[in-house]
Design goal:
globular, TIM Barrel, 10-stranded mixed sheet, 5 domains, about 900 residues
């Protein structure tokens, strides 16, 4: 009950609750309000989630328009309660009519999304067009207890409770290099290596900035921010907009572009028009999205993406759908937008929607089924004058999300094969844009963000977690960058997935030097240098102040010198050079020649061919052996070299040095795809012990995987018996690998290509059964289902008990069964990866300068601790100074007054 002496006048009042943090659940405050009755909920709060810390905690609440007329229960003005157990224990409650000074509460109250962005700014990516750009969908919907949004667990688990049976994702993020302040403990959950699990929140500005830093590092142009407008939610209704705020800021900080993508899944035919139009008006008037300098435009119009209106399951009428698109096109104040539509892959069968389809400026079909689908979409949209944004994705899984324990709703990633086939088919259609779906959607396992090979174990009755199958944790981002190179013609158009060795040279996003060329060059640590063969002139071309070589036959070069305080005479420096150029002709090329360790005019790869797109593009060169000793003509460090007679227009040039992001981690490959196998293709069953380690298969044939027939990519073709309509139902395979110390491995994951079904054994024990019925199998047993299309080439994942390993030679035995004796194809390939302790637990290394160091490329978050005595019982105390992330290592100075015998260790928090 609020005392009568407490004064307020229909203005917000503020409540502080000190409670004992035991158990789980979120505090809820309901108060007697003017507009929303006697039991209105506090709309804004901080630190309201119990996380079982065993200490007292403080929560803060804003109570707008309080009435305090004692209308609750037996005369109360407000009440505090929660779900969860044990019961809530409150020490004190304090009410005042001015905000409490807690920094997080103050930040939440400030609603920074209502102010224009005013921080650091980069303009690397052109905002005026989406042509020749790679854009990713960004969900931004992950929340954690006591983050800025203060909603508890959202999207990581169902029901808001962190438990294995509530897992909502089939990927677990690799949190290497995240600052401790960005991570939230998944209390009660351990990864397979036994470490406490941690997760991030999309409400944290530094975390979204890190995601956009990855976009810059791996050369994505920007993101469509998914916006799930719904009645009563979002900024129009007074809700928080942390992700909107964070994405806008991150786009500025990392020089990316962004745009709004509405997902209509939370709407219906009766409310969609009102909710979406109100929301867009609020975004334009209150947030100023159309005035934001990093917002994406096309043909002079701000971009708006609307996903889902034509889906029959959504229940939208043509009248409503047309009205929504027409508003964004034609409203006299809020229209004039470039509108993209997201449609089902079978959209061309919805002929009664053709008038609606043709109202859009651009479109994508969600998850086209094959290359023919991409081509058909491109051709029809082109005939209508609509831009095509083909959707590609790396694969996915719904096992934890939908509580499945089989291979349904599962598109295995197969080391990037699935992803690259989509990219190849999409760009083969003729498309000049690419949509990646999605950047961060761990839920359906379509994210290209890094995932760990050390996830928790799924529930025993269902579920799975995907891994990288021996690829680095950032492999999907590397492939996305390669897809952009394919789109821009920097990489040959090929269906072959890029080799890992060809993508190891990652870009840098560290310290920056740059110059803006024009009538007056704007320089920051990078300076143009003139020479007889390099004296570019200022001009304004294609909307930009820039410079060009006016006499291309003799004046071919643009010379640049880095400030010696930035980089000078370094023996093998890693550096990334980016050049913004106008692609004005389809003849000629240019490259970068730099002062390298081996000489002053080393040529960087690849040469950049001009293609005449009529766009400002960015060429990127990743150097590993820069010297930058001012040894080029006129004391320059590098030059842009155009071929003779090519006029080149250059705007901005940027040089980035190594960043502090940790190197990606990677599991050990025990059996690689494409290994050599013994096989028996006679159709006659081998001895019953054929899968045992001591079985002698020397008389079996031998060949490299993929093995089989009928698919077309086989490295080794096996026999099916000579009768196309009566093939051998079963073919047998055996392979070996050597392990020195089996106890080093705590986790194994296999990938199996099984066309049609397979049973696989490790050292005689069954470790995988796919597309096969339970029970004994024989030479005549058939698979339960046919395997068709791309599934014939994919590697289905499965966890393996590492205790089955033996020291020395280990044996993999597999039997592959046809669905029918007339099946046209059979296929087998296999891979096995494992994680060791030293791949997930960092080693603490003492440095000579009284500092400790440990690798950041491992999962989890570790606290350095010290002790002065190792005689039991030992007491360990945390070091209170904060470590700094430096070039992939955490570095922590040790206290200068440490006793002579001080011991240090890392403790997983």
């Amino acid at each position: 009950m609020v005392p009568a002496s407490f004064t307020f006048s229909n203005a917000p009042v503020y409540l502080q609750v000190v409670y004992f943090d035991q158990g789980f659940g979120q505090l809820q405050v309901q108060y007697d309000s003017v507009a929303n009755g006697a039991y209105a909920s506090s709309p804004l709060h901080s630190h309201s989630s119990r996380v079982n810390s065993g200490a007292f905690a403080i929560a803060y609440f804003e109570l707008p328009a309080a009435a305090f007329l004692k209308r609750q229960g037996t005369g109360a003005d407000l009440r505090v309660g929660l779900g969860g157990s044990p019961p809530l224990s409150v020490q004190s409650a304090t009410l005042q009519n001015f905000p409490f000074p807690d920094p997080q509460f103050q930040l939440a109250l400030s609603a920074p999304w209502l102010r224009p962005y005013s921080g650091p700014d980069r303009n690397d990516v052109d905002t005026t067009t989406l042509r020749r750009k790679v854009m990713a969908g960004y969900q931004g919907w992950f929340r954690a207890p006591n983050d800025l949004s203060d909603q508890g667990w959202v999207h990581w688990v169902r029901n808001g409770t962190m438990a294995a049976t509530n897992f909502n994702t089939d990927m677990w993020p690799d949190i290497s290099g995240f600052a401790g302040s960005e991570l939230f403990p998944a209390t009660g959950i351990q990864t397979r290596s036994g470490q406490p699990a941690w997760l991030f929140s999309s409400a944290t500005p530094a975390t979204v900035a890190r995601h956009f830093q990855w976009m810059r590092k791996y050369n994505l142009d920007g993101a469509f921010l998914q916006r799930f407008a719904a009645p009563g939610s979002g900024g129009y209704y007074g809700g928080d907009e942390w992700v909107l705020n964070n994405v806008r800021a991150a786009a500025h900080q990392e020089g990316r572009i962004w745009a709004i993508e509405y997902d209509v899944s939370s709407l219906n035919d009766g409310n969609a028009l009102e909710v979406m139009t109100n929301d867009w008006r609020w975004l334009v008037d209150s947030v100023g999205v159309r005035q934001d300098s990093r917002y994406a435009y096309e043909n002079g119009k701000p971009v708006v993406f609307i996903w889902g209106l034509p889906y029959p399951s959504k229940g939208f009428s043509l009248t409503t759908a047309n009205a929504i698109v027409d508003f964004f096109h034609n409203d006299p104040v809020y229209g004039g937008n470039y509108v993209i539509g997201g449609w089902p892959w079978w959209w061309q069968t919805l002929t009664n929607w053709n008038d609606h389809f043709q109202r859009y400026d651009g479109a994508l079909a969600w998850q086209p089924q094959n290359a023919a689908g991409y081509l058909a979409d491109f051709q029809q949209l082109s005939a209508w004058g609509i831009d095509y944004f083909p959707h590609v994705w790396p694969g996915g899984s719904w096992a934890n999300l939908q509580q499945l324990d089989n291979e349904t709703q599962y598109s295995p990633r197969t080391g990037g094969f699935y992803y690259w086939q989509d990219v190849y088919a999409a760009l083969g259609s003729g498309a000049t844009r690419l949509f990646i779906g999605m950047f961060d959607e761990y839920d359906e396992s379509t994210a290209v963000m890094p995932m760990t090979d050390d996830p928790p174990d799924p529930p025993p009755a269902w579920g799975r977690f995907l891994t990288n199958l021996g690829k680095p944790s950032d492999w999907w981002l590397l492939l996305t960058g390669a897809a952009r190179d394919l789109l821009l013609g920097y990489r040959p158009y090929s269906p072959v997935t890029p080799a890992e060795s060809s993508l190891t040279n990652r870009a840098n996003t560290g310290p920056l030097a740059f110059v803006e060329l024009g009538a007056t060059n704007q320089t920051t640590l990078l300076y143009p240098v003139t020479a007889a063969d390099g004296d570019p002139a200022a001009t304004n071309y294609a909307g930009r102040d820039c410079r060009f070589n006016p006499s291309p036959a003799t004046n071919r070069f643009f010379y640049f010198n880095l400030d010696d305080t930035f980089a000078y005479a370094t023996n093998g420096l890693s550096a990334t050079v980016e050049i913004d150029y106008y692609d004005s002709t389809n003849a000629g090329s240019f490259t970068l020649q730099y002062d390298g360790v081996s000489g002053a005019y080393e040529t960087a790869e690849p040469p950049i061919s001009l293609r005449g797109t009529g766009l400002w593009l960015t060429a990127r060169f990743n150097l590993t052996d820069a010297y930058f000793g001012n040894r080029e003509n006129g004391g320059a460090d590098f030059r842009i070299a155009a071929v003779a007679n090519v006029t080149l227009y250059v705007d901005q040039v940027r040089v980035s040095l190594p960043d502090n992001l940790p190197p990606p981690r990677k599991a050990t490959v025990l059996v690689p795809p494409g290994a050599t196998w013994r096989y028996l293709d006679t159709g006659i069953a081998p001895a019953t012990n054929w899968m045992a380690n001591d079985f002698n298969a020397a008389t079996w044939k031998q060949g490299a995987a993929p093995l089989g027939y009928g698919v077309g990519d086989e490295a080794t073709v096996v026999s099916f018996g000579g009768q196309g309509g009566n093939k051998h139902p079963t073919t047998w395979f055996r392979g070996t690998f050597v392990v020195g110390n089996p106890s080093e491995f705590y986790s194994l994951v296999l990938g199996a290509r099984r066309d049609d079904g397979a049973v696989i054994y490790l050292n005689g024990s069954e470790i995988y059964r796919g597309n096969m019925a339970a029970g004994p199998v024989s030479a005549t047993t058939l698979a339960t289902n046919d395997t068709t299309g791309l599934d014939r080439q994919l590697l289905f994942e499965h966890n393996v008990d590492s205790s089955l390993l033996v020291a020395g030679t280990n044996v993999i035995a597999a039997e592959v069964h046809l669905f029918s004796v007339s099946s046209p194809d059979l296929g087998f390939d296999f891979t096995l990866t494992g994680l060791t302790e030293n791949q997930v637990r960092p080693a603490l290394i003492p440095l000579t300068n009284d500092a400790l160091q440990w690798a950041a490329n491992v999962g989890g978050y570790f606290t350095p601790s010290f002790s002065t005595n190792l005689t039991p019982p030992v007491s360990w105390f945390p070091l209170t100074n904060s470590p700094m992330l430096e070039r992939g290592q955490w570095v922590l100075p040790t206290p200068g007054n440490s006793p002579p015998n001080t011991f240090f260790r890392l403790q997983a928090r």
